[in-house]
Design a protein that fits this description.
heterodimer; A: mainly alpha; 13 helices; 68% helix; B: alpha/beta; Rossmann fold; 7-stranded mixed β-sheet; two-stranded parallel ribbon
Chain lengths: 331, 428
């Protein structure tokens, strides 16, 4: 096999794993949109906030320390303890659940029955609020995430495959972090599907997604379900924040990962969990292959815009996305 | 009666505002929020702390106190312009926006308004030609100097020849990131190395394609023009593919502590340029700690003192304060105007003795500004990250750029700008 062909395979493999990371972000959007019809603009910021909170708890950072010090003239920044990763993850999840409850109680409960655009605007406000809150609580410096995730390419895979394509082929490069992300994403998706299919709350969630008025009429609490859905989106945001934060450190640019999820949603559909996964994989492979084959001829840096072009091409043929619910308008 | 009261209050207000006009007003177009906050915060901390230290220690400069007007830009060009518009009426003496995008928007505005713009190591490179850009300064160095210093360093590393070498440039796909390309292309033709250009889109969170290409093509060196998250991801990706870190050199906006710390030990050996030395033991830091931080007047929480970008912000403030003093000396008044400030900047002469006197010996190279040369000496050092010590180590003394390469480019570009904008080149 020629080295170029094998490098093409390498690009596809890396594209698939990049797609998994995009899908992780898209999943949060899908969960909330499916259950409540809200396009949650704040999903990227939720990933940032969850990652900031995780690091803050692990490092024993005092939240709002800048404000406390400014008001009281103190110089406290840390409690002086370090929290183990698993406990910190659990505590962060508790914070995200509390956030979900607060969002429902103070924002969306008052907007029931409003137009989707109003709800969307509310999530924009929520995004700015949460970003500012994250800054006030934990500061804007870059934080290193130490939850034991592996870094670097797999030397074993590289060594095992280096002889496949002659001297010009150096073996497949597969990032260990991407492999872990793939496994975690697979477990997460299977858990979410199992939860939705087999648990009482999951079935209630699906009922609300199908027809919230009918669900209300059989005694399902919309408030509870929406808190549950936002909590699940918080869990997905935490996983995405950890995986992306492990690559670059936890910093405020993490909120921009939402931009990578939009073409995935356009392609996979806003209401399908499998759609988010498949959409992510298609976008990941498509953008990486385009950059590999054509990018160099047109100046490179094609990935950001090509993902949207690819999604638009799909939209021409399936406006509801690959897995979205078919749009039927009755006149 | 009411009218009289209001009129009296207005008069009192005007009288009260009177002394404020005599202050030395320094806007700080900072970014402490958003994706680039990690870089913007320490620069702003250093910038403000130095002026506050001068206020506390010396009563400002020449008996006039500094007044800082901080305005958050979020590294957003539109917000940067809004900040300029909202602060210029306060008697602003100098703008340092820490953004090439904002700089490009402000160049025509400051020229029309008559307020000096200082873009230290960023912005429009050809602004070094002071006869075209009367109100813009980019001393002590610019991007093209940086590109030339990098190549001169590599020439030194390779016995004076880069013939047949392959050098990749990983750059932020923006006006900032594209600045060195022209210089590097000329240097590539001159020294016979092959230049591979790899653009990374904003913000730079995802760079797998670029680093897989580097892994395939195995360039001898990788140069980087990055900012923000692009730097941290690039250092991590380079480590992931096993690229030799000692052959990976970032420019001076890709060489702060937070650019390498997230990658941990894997970042060990990564190199970058710096336009100023870092030395946490400089006496000036003691004054800042005592007079600003301990007094509760610090711009930040004090954790950034002595870091690369804090030191650079402080260095930028020092250059501005020295220009104020020079302007006061030229015009014989303490309460200078922006036009006088421009004169001070154009007559600036930074000597080793003066830097030592200021408690920051050898923080930067010696240089003098003139009407023709707003760009300074262009010197830079190469520093290397020592992960075990958690510190940057200077590898070289100040390296000079190749003026024979950069100067013609500056003259050509500035001449084109002058022709486009009907500017008649000359000194003020």
């Amino acid at each position: 096999m020629s080295a170029d062909f094998l490098y093409g395979i390498e690009v596809i493999l890396n594209g698939l794993m990049a797609g998994v990371l995009y899908a992780l972000v898209a999943l949060g959007f899908v969960l909330i949109f499916k259950a409540s019809g809200i396009f949650n603009y704040a999903q990227g910021v939720m990933a940032l906030f969850a990652a900031l909170t995780l690091v803050g708890i692990m490092e024993g950072q005092v939240p709002f320390s800048h404000i406390i010090n400014a008001i009281f003239g103190t110089k406290i920044h840390h409690f002086g303890w370090h929290v183990p990763a698993l406990l910190a993850i659990f505590l962060t999840l508790c914070v995200m659940v509390a956030f979900a409850w607060a969002v429902q109680k103070f924002v969306f409960r008052h907007l029931v029955g409003q137009e989707p655009i109003i709800l969307f605007m509310a999530t924009i406000g929520l995004a700015y609020f949460l970003e500012g809150m994250g800054d006030l609580m934990w500061g804007s410096d870059i934080k290193t995430l130490k939850v034991g995730l592996p870094q670097g390419g797999s030397r074993w895979i590289e060594d095992m495959t280096s002889g496949l394509g002659g001297n010009d082929f150096y073996g497949f490069f597969i990032d260990k972090l991407d492999m872990v992300a793939t496994v975690v994403a697979a477990i997460l998706v299977m858990s979410l599907i199992a939860f939705a299919q087999y648990s009482k709350q999951g079935r209630a969630m699906r009922a609300v997604a199908d027809d919230h008025q009918a669900a209300l009429s059989v005694g399902i609490s919309l408030n509870f379900i929406w808190v549950l859905v936002w909590s699940l989106a918080g869990l997905v945001a935490l996983v995405a924040g950890v995986m992306w934060g492990a690559k670059s450190g936890v910093q405020f640019s993490l909120s921009l990962i939402a931009l990578k999820a939009l073409p995935v949603l356009m392609l996979g559909g806003f209401t399908s969990i499998p759609g988010a996964i498949v959409g992510g994989l298609i976008i990941g492979v498509g953008e990486k292959l385009f950059e590999y084959t054509i990018g160099g001829m047109i100046g490179g840096a094609t990935e950001n815009w090509f993902a949207y072009v690819l999604a638009l091409i799909f939209l021409v043929f399936r406006p509801q996305g690959l897995f979205g619910e078919k749009i039927i308008e009755r006149v | 009666m009411k009218l009289k009261t209001l009129a009296a209050m207005a008069l009192a207000g005007t009288l009260a505002a009177g002394p404020a006009l005599a202050e030395l007003v320094i806007p700080d177009l900072s970014y402490r929020t958003g994706p680039y906050a990690a870089g913007g915060t320490p620069v702003s901390d250093g910038y403000q702390d130095y002026f506050n230290m001068l206020n506390a220690r010396d009563g400002g400069v020449g008996g006039e106190m500094f007044r800082i007007l901080e305005c958050e830009t979020g590294y957003n060009t539109e917000k940067g312009v809004e900040c300029y518009e909202s602060t210029k009426g306060e008697g602003a003496l100098i703008y340092q926006p820490l953004s090439t995008g904002i700089t490009y928007q402000l160049i025509p505005k400051v020229t029309a308004d008559g307020i000096p713009l200082h873009t230290m190591g960023y912005g429009r490179t050809s602004a070094a030609n002071g006869e075209v850009f009367n109100w813009v300064f980019n001393y002590p160095a610019n991007y093209w100097d940086a590109a030339s210093v990098m190549v001169n360093y590599l020439l030194d590393e390779n016995g004076g020849s880069l013939d047949g070498k392959n050098i990749a440039l990983v750059y932020h796909n923006s006006a900032y990131g594209k600045e060195p390309i022209r210089t590097l292309e000329n240097l590539s033709a001159q020294y016979g190395f092959e230049l591979t250009q790899l653009a990374v889109d904003h913000p730079g969170q995802e760079q797998k394609s670029q680093w897989l290409q580097i892994r395939r093509e195995r360039p001898d060196y990788v140069l980087m023009w990055g900012w923000g998250v692009m730097n941290q991801v690039a250092v991590q990706e380079a480590a992931n593919i096993g690229f030799p870190m000692e052959n990976f050199i970032g420019n001076w906006w890709a060489g702060a502590e937070h650019d390498v710390i997230p990658a941990g030990d894997a970042a060990n050996g990564y190199k970058s340029l710096n336009m100023n030395r870092i030395d946490a033991s400089l006496p000036v830091f003691d004054d800042i700690r005592t007079l600003v931080h301990d007094a509760g007047n610090a711009a930040g929480d004090g954790s950034n003192i002595g870091t690369v970008l804090y030191t650079r912000g402080m260095y930028a403030a020092m250059l501005a304060a020295e220009a104020v003093a020079t302007a006061q000396g030229i015009h014989g008044v303490a309460a200078i105007t922006p036009a006088m400030m421009r004169d001070g900047m154009e007559a600036l002469d930074i000597t080793a003795a003066r830097m030592e006197e200021l408690g920051m010996a050898n923080i930067g190279p010696e240089f003098a500004v003139s009407c023709q040369d707003h760009g300074g000496s262009g010197l830079g050092i190469v520093q290397q990250w020592d992960a075990s010590a958690g510190a940057w180590v200077a590898l070289t003394d100040y390296i000079a750029p190749d003026d024979a390469v950069t100067l013609p480019l500056i003259m050509e570009d500035s001449a084109a700008f002058a022709a486009e904008n009907n500017i008649e080149a000359g000194c003020m």
